[in-house]
Design goal:
The chain is 28% helix and 32% strand. It has helices spanning 25-35, 76-83, 120-130, 167-172, 182-192, 194-204, 246-261, and strands at 38-44, 52-58, 60-61, 67-72, 86-92, 105-114, 143-158, 161-166, 211-218, 221-228, 231-238. Helix 5 (182-192) crosses helix 6 (194-204) and helix 6 (194-204) crosses helix 7 (246-261).
């Protein structure tokens, strides 16, 4: 991802949004879909016409962020899709703690259909990489690969952060480069560098707090939850420059702490 997108803000945010750069909703949705493994698939019921039928659904992420499913013809959701391909896939932030309504989630709306034979080899590799145990049933006669062609996307990033994402923007977006490492970064900062977070909150967010916790991190910055005299507050702190890996993240955080200590 080019550094030219450093200043691009998430669209659809509320008036509480500051001037701190953030990834777009499209990028956040792609990141969440990349990080997730299991969603809730809603199909249109054949038995009860017009009613949604929801199933637990493991998925892999194919090209353009399209979900790939390995499903059996015996499953009710497959029978529903054969009658009407319209569906939604709902995915929540993996490992989120605290209030579930404060966690990120995304809903993909689209049509689900069987993947053509010429594309099966590549899709099979993608799916088995994500779910190695599926090798035990992938070749059963009743299992087939399906894919969702995304029509629309709705992203919720927590309280008051939500909005629609055009399918074209979602398909062109990339997942955040820290997606595979953000939990380790947050764990390190929250376990070993709480004093640094307090300093950073004072210097870069203008908030004094005796307690601070990093709640998310991405290529452009991070969010903190702060315990102040007036209660709990949240803040977004931007990095001095865009980062693409854990080493760069550590380097820029060290620089920012040094700046904070100079004051």
């Amino acid at each position: 991802m080019s550094s030219s997108s450093f200043g691009k803000h998430a669209s659809g945010a509320t008036s509480s949004q500051t001037a701190v750069p953030e990834p777009s909703f499209a990028e956040r949705a792609r990141t969440l879909m990349h990080s997730g493994r299991i969603g809730s698939l809603s199909t249109l019921s054949r038995k009860q016409p017009g009613f949604p039928f929801v199933s637990l659904m493991p998925y892999a992420l194919g090209d353009q962020g399209r979900p790939v499913l390995l499903i059996s013809t015996m499953a009710m959701h497959t029978q529903n899709l054969q009658a009407d391909p319209r569906a939604s896939l709902f995915v929540t932030e993996p490992g989120a703690s605290g209030d579930p309504l404060g966690a990120s989630r995304v809903t993909l709306i689209g049509t689900v259909s069987r993947i053509p034979e010429p594309e099966l080899a590549a899709v099979r590799t993608v799916y088995l990489t994500r779910f190695p145990d599926s090798k035990y049933w992938v070749d059963f006669d009743d299992f087939f690969f399906y894919r969702m062609d995304v029509l629309d996307v709705y992203y919720v990033g927590g309280f008051g952060v939500m909005g629609w994402v055009a399918a074209s923007e979602y398909s062109q977006a990339q997942s955040d480069p820290l997606a595979e490492h953000n939990s380790d970064i947050m764990q390190h900062m929250n376990a070993d560098r709480k004093d640094a977070l307090i300093l950073l909150a004072k210097r870069f967010a203008g908030i004094e707090a005796p307690e601070a916790e990093m709640t998310s991190v991405d290529r452009l910055g991070f969010h903190v939850r702060l315990k102040t005299q007036d209660g709990m507050r949240g803040a977004r702190i931007g990095f001095l420059r865009e980062v693409t890996n854990p080493t760069q993240t550590r380097e820029v955080l060290v620089e920012m702490v040094k700046l904070a200590r100079q004051e």
